[in-house]
Structures are given as C-alpha cells and as structure tokens.
Amino acid sequence: MLRQLHISNYALIDSLEIDFTPGLNIITGETGAGKSIMLGALSLLLGARADSRAVKSEKNKSVVEATFSVNGYSALADYCRQHDIEWDESWCIIRREILPTGRSRAFINDSPVTIVQLETVSRQLIDIHSQNQNQLLASEDFQRRVLDSMSGNSSLLSQYAGEYALFRSLKSELTETLKTIEQNKQDEEFTRFQLTQLTDARLTEGEQTELEKERDILSNMTELKETLSETLELLTNGRENVLSQLSAAVDSCEDLSEVLDDASSLCERLESARVEIQDIAETLADYDANLHADPTELEYIEQRLGLIYSLQNRFKVDTVEALIAKRDELQGRLSMLEDSDMTVDDLKKKVTAAKKQAVATAARITAIRKQVAGEFARRLEEEAKPLGMHNLRCVVNVCESELSPSGADKVEFRFAFNKNQTPVAVGGAASGGEVSRLMLCIKSIIAGKLQLPSIIFDEVDTGVSGDVANRMGLMMRAIASALQVITITHLPQVAAKGASHYKVYKVDDDSATHTRIRRLSDTERENELALMLSGSASDTAALATARSLLGK
Questions:
Q1: Which site from 43, 90, 360, 494 is most exposed, i.e. has the minimal number of CB atoms within 10 Å?
Q2: What pTM was estimated for this model as a whole?
Q3: Taking phi first (over 0 means left), then psi (-120 to 50 degrees means alpha), and beta for anything else, what does residue 316 get?
C-alpha cells in the first residue's frame, strides 16, 4: 500500500510530504486548495504526460516520489528482476522528475526506467478513480476485466494468451509461406537460369583471394626474378657475398677465443647468424627455381577471375562467399517449390491444431464468464440499492464471437434504472451521478480480487447527499478492509468514516501561495466536519452533528 508521498516544486506545492495509513484515508479541503494538484502529481507516477508549466520554480526540478509496502507481490518482483530493476522485498519507491526544460526522468528503487516500465509497475500498486474515468464503465474491455476479476481465471487467461499468440504466429507464417511460394512460382524460370549460372561456375570458398594472388605473381614474374637474383647475388653468389664474409668472421673469432674469454660466445652467435642466412638463401633459391612464366596459366587465371567478377556484378555482391550463399538461396527457393505442397500441408495442420487448442481454452473462459455474469449482475443490484438505485436492473450478456486476444466472446453490461424500462447500454441510460455510484459498487464487489494495494477515489460521491452519501462512505470503508483506500470528498458523511483524515489548504507568504496538507487530530476532525456541515467550525449544532457522525 501507499505509505508515503513526497512532492516538491510542483504547481502550488513547494514541498509536501505525507504519510498514509492502512484502511480508509480521507482528504478534504476547500475547492482550489490543491487536492487536484496532488492527484495530478500522483498521476505522473502512472505515466501521465509531464508538463514543464507545472514546475513551480525554474531553478529546480519537480519531484514526485511514492513509497509502497510490497510484501508478497511476487509477480511485481518477477517483472522488475526480468527488466534489471532493483527490487526490495519490503518496499518499492517510485520517482518521477520533471526538469525545467520539460524533459522527465523515471526511477524505480533508484533504477532508471522508461515511462512504459514506470506505468506497468505503478498500475499494479495504485488505481486512481475519478469522475473522468466513469466512461470506463461503457468500455467492453473494462466490463470483461470485471468479470475476469470475479472469475479468478488469471491462469487460464495466461494459458489462452500463449495459445492465441502461437495460433496467430503460425497463421502469419502460413500466409507468408504461401505468398513466398506464389512469388517463387512466378520467378521459377529466371531462378533456374540464375542457379545454373552459379552452379556451372563451380565456385569454392577462398578461390578469389588465391587467384588474385597467383595473378599478381605471374604478372610481375620478370621483376620478381630480377629481385631474387639480386638478393641471392648479395647473399651467396657474388664474389664478396654475405655468407663467405660471415664464414671468415667466424674463423677470425675462433682465433680470438684463444686469447679473449668472451670470444667463444661471440663465435657461437656469428655461426648462428651464418646458418640463418644460409637457410634464407636456400629458401630464396627454391623460390627462384620454382618461378616460371607460364602464359597459359596466367590466361586461365584471368578468365576465371573475369567470370567471378562478372557474376559478382550481376548479383551485386563483393565476394565468392556471397555468390555461394546466393546459389544456396536460389536452391532453397526451388526446393521449397518442389516441397511446397508438403510444407503448406504441414503448416495448415499446425495452424488448425493451434486454433483448436485456443478455441477449446476460449470456450472454457466463455463458460466461466457466463457463469459469473449472473452472479455479478445480482450482486451489483444488491450493492446499488442502498445507494438510491432501488429499481436498478443489470443484465450481463456474454455473446460468442471470433477469436481475439481476450477470448472468443463479447461482454456487454446493460442497465435499467427505472421500472418497466428495457435495459440498455450504460452510455444511454445513466446520469453522471448514477455512473459514479455504479463504479463504486463495482469496485466494492471486486476489491478483494484486485490484487491491488491502494485505490484512490476522487470525489466519486459528487451529486449525492444524505443517507446515500452515508452509505457510500460505509461502502468505501468496507472496501478499505481489503485494500488501502484514499478518498477525496466534500461530504461530511463520507469524511467521518475514515481511519485517518487529512486536510489540504493554502497559505500565503510574501512572495507566493503554497499548498499544504496535514493529518488532523480528533478535535481538528470535529472542527473540519462542522465546517463542512455549516460553513463554520465553531457552530455548536454542527459540532454536535460532527461528533455524532464520528461516533457512529
């Protein structure tokens, strides 16, 4: 649940820090005090778009940070670890920063994350419900998720998601294969012509490099022979060649060794050098003996390279290896054509099997949804009656349809709010206040199955009063027994039901107006409720009523 919220340098808030408690938390305050500003800041943690105009002082960044207790949230822990996000088994700290330039940064447990990752994690921790979100009730996706929440069929939905993804993947593969086969059939004659050219060339890997090397040698044979002759003349063949002079040096050094102590080691080094030079000279002589100018061989190499260059230009590649790969590709196309019937039949069987499995699982999901639909409609009618909707009738239709990512059915909630009225879609039947109360009832029904630590209601009680307001407060308190509830309200009947009560207010200094929030003591709660009841915190009758509400 949400333990602490910190906001700094945001709109009218210079710095604000608030600790929330389990159960029902109440937030009240005059219109314009800054309650909506707080929600706007909190929505940034849910991935809302950052706006540089919300930065209070251009000298500093805006920071919104929320600390949640997350004991036992294994799915959330797995998600964070899979995405290299730091994870603590007890706490999760989510932070969003907005720079004066408008650029924003997001962090989870001090790990930098994308806005998508931030939203994914935060929406598993908190839900903000305001009147603007009442339109969700008309959404088929929302209606379906409500039924699934009651069904407890998350594992079956996960199984279906994998089966549906496999079916779609195989179906896409079949479509692409048929398209490729059709294209290959149209190009078959040209493909065979190209393959014949590459096959007849009998190409081998590394061939081009070797041929170019041999061509260079044969093309420069005269220069090579002259260079070899000059080198051998210097080393062994000349009158005063290197080897003869080294031999003489070795003999002289041996004479010195009889007189000088270190001369013997010098003789060994000179002899080693003479042997090395001798070996080099013999190798060069072998080169010289084996190099022969062969015009026929050079002509063959030039023709072979000409063929290779021509093929490379034709197929727009640079190497023999690329030509070989192209040859194999063309062979693969023709092989696919030869085996196309078998390939297509095999894929069709896989698509059929995958669809059959997905359809079977989807049918189980549909059956569960139909089973739960009646129970949900009955419970919604019961929950709504105390909130002034005595004649509400709810019909939940689960109609079979084509396979989709969510199953093989369509879910539709239909409502009638008056006697002898035909149930119709919520968009054409309900007022804003009725939709708010319906949404509260729905959240009450599924609260224990949401696996959500915290929910915020933003003035969902607008437009009601008296006994209905009291019952809405009781419903929120009942929801708070399963998860943390934070409610922004203007109704004293609702505010009196909270375990903790916070007041948002504004203060002025010499330079600006600032939004503040504080937790109220018992006496301050009485005064706040009296103010909400009569407009005066000191009104005796209002104070008595406030004490009565709190006592209840």
A1: 90
A2: 0.65
A3: left
- Residue 112 pairs in a beta bridge with 107
Residues 6+ apart with CB under 8 A from 437: 384, 387, 388, 389, 460, 464, 468, 472
pLDDT digits (tens, 9 = 90+) for 431-453: 667 788 888 888 888 876 766 77
pLDDT digits (tens, 9 = 90+) for 146-168: 899 888 888 899 999 999 999 99
Cα(548)–Cα(543) distance, integer angstroms: 9
What is the b/e burial string over 242-276, where b = at least 16 CB atoms within 10 angstroms of the residue's CB?
bbeebeebbeebeeeeeeeeebeebbeebbeebee
- Where do the DSSP E strands lie in 70-171? 91-98, 104-108, 111-113, 126-130
How many CA atoms does the CB half-sphere of 201 hold within 13 Å?
27
Q: Which of 451, 449, 427 is nearest to 438 (CA)?
A: 427
Most distant pair of Cα atoms in the chain: their distance: 135
Helix (H) or strand (E) holding 32: none
Looking at residue 34, its amino acid is G
